[in-house]
Amino acid sequence: MNDKVKLNGEKYRIAWLPGDGVGVDVMDATRIVLDKIGLNAEYIHGDIGWEFWCSEGEALPVRTVDLLKSVDAAMFGAITSKPVKAAEAELTAGLKGRGLTYRSPIVRMRQQFDLYNCLRPCKSYPGNPLNFKENIDIVVFRENTEDLYAGVEFNPVPASVAEVLAKESKAFAPFKDLPGDQYALSVKVNTRKGSERIVRAAFEYARKFGRKKVTVVVKANVVRATDGLFLDVAKEVAKEFPEIQMDDANVDAICMWLLKNPYSYEVLVAPNLYGDIISDLCAQMVGGLGFACSGNIGTKLAVFEPSHGSAPKYAGQYKVNPIACILSAKMMLDWLGETEKGTRIEKATAEVIKEGKVRTYDMGGTNTTLEMGEAIAAKL
Ligand code: IPM
Ligand code: MG
């Protein structure tokens, strides 16, 4: 973990990126908590989200990228994304037909700033009525920059690409004569470096926090090249951590086992897409996306966000649960080296959950997003 602790009263610079939809609601509640804990920080608003796509053709404007280059960390809410054609249809008149393509800004931030470690702790806090079981405590490490998220995609497929594939891959034979507009290709790219650093992050975490086992999630029996490489690299890294057990599981099977035996798992590490999927599954076991916090962590910058989306139908209603975002702020404090403050936020959150007096609608209550933020702040 990075240690960015400030001395002599210098302020942290935190980029504040609410985005759109309920991102704005949950970030407002999170700010109540951060203000109360008294982090000596300057929160600098950054434009990001759907409205900037529609009006500027750019959901992640250059000015926001520049802001991210100058901060210690960022808090991010959520952003609406739509498929390519639906996105094009919402551009303002002057921007239509210019060949602009929408790509998820969070995925771009992860790639542009090399935020390779997507860290997603999933803990069932006692008394949460939404817990699948009590005492679940699983930490997911998701590779965050490559794999099927690399963005190497073709639709339609250019003839030159098809030619190379026909020459180099026997398995491509059934597809080789298809017209380019009759199929699409998304290339899964996994590097040794990318695989190694995420697996190492998982093992280092296990060592630091006394976890006994790391489970590598792949599908190496079928996806042999890329997942095979991920697994081979994991086995090499594991040798450096003899006190920690390593096992591996196929992504399909682990979806069953996680539900059956959640206590058998402590730390999971996976390539990008499988990590995306299993982290939603783990989140649901500990209360759903309202509790799913996450960090996108690189060496210089880290962006913290609730894993839920923008839920446009609830936008501005101050109805959704801000706990995922508040726990993401806790992760940010830990990453900054402010672990005492981070721990206090987690404790306060756990107390509010346990008491059960203040609950948002997902928890069966009627409290608002901001009331949840205030209740947690009041415990600090
Ligand atoms: C997540 C989300 C994102 C992803 C979407 C919003 C692009 O599902 O952070 O898990 O696929 O990574
Ligand atoms: Mg996801």
3D structure, described in words:
- With 380 residues, this protein is of the alpha/beta class.
- The chain is built from 13 helices and twelve strands.
- It has helices at 22-37, 50-56, 62-69, 84-89, 105-112, 159-168, 192-208, 224-238, 251-260, 272-285, 323-336, 339-355, 369-378; strands at 12-19, 41-45, 73-78, 117-123, 137-143, 153-154, 185-186, 213-218, 245-250, 267-270, 293-297, 302-306.
- The strands form two sheets. A ten-stranded mixed sheet has the order 2-1-3-12-11-4-5-10-8-9, sandwiched between helices. The protein has a two-stranded antiparallel sheet with strand order 6-7.
- It is globular, with a radius of gyration of 21 Å.
- The two termini are 25 Å apart.
- The relative contact order is 0.18.
- The model has no long low-confidence stretch (mean pLDDT 96).
- Bound molecules: 3-isopropylmalic acid and magnesium ion.
Write a short abstract of this structure.
The chain has helices at 22-37, 50-56, 62-69, 84-89, 105-112, 159-168, 192-208, 224-238, 251-260, 272-285, 323-336, 339-355, 369-378; strands at 12-19, 41-45, 73-78, 117-123, 137-143, 153-154, 185-186, 213-218, 245-250, 267-270, 293-297, 302-306.
The biggest beta sheet reads: 10 strands, mixed
Give me the Rg, rounded. 21 Å
Cofactors and ligands: 3-isopropylmalic acid, magnesium ion
Give the strand order of the largest sheet, numbering strands 1, 2, ... along the chain. 2-1-3-12-11-4-5-10-8-9
Determine the fraction of residues in helical runs and give it as a percent range: 40-55%
- Tell how many strands the DSSP assignment holds: 12
Number of helix segments? 13
* Strand content range: 15-25%
Shape: globular
Coarse structural class: alpha/beta
Task: Please mark out the parts with pLDDT under 50 across 5 or more consecutive residues, or reply none.
Answer: none
* Terminus-to-terminus distance: 25 Å
Give the rounded overall mean pLDDT.
Answer: 96
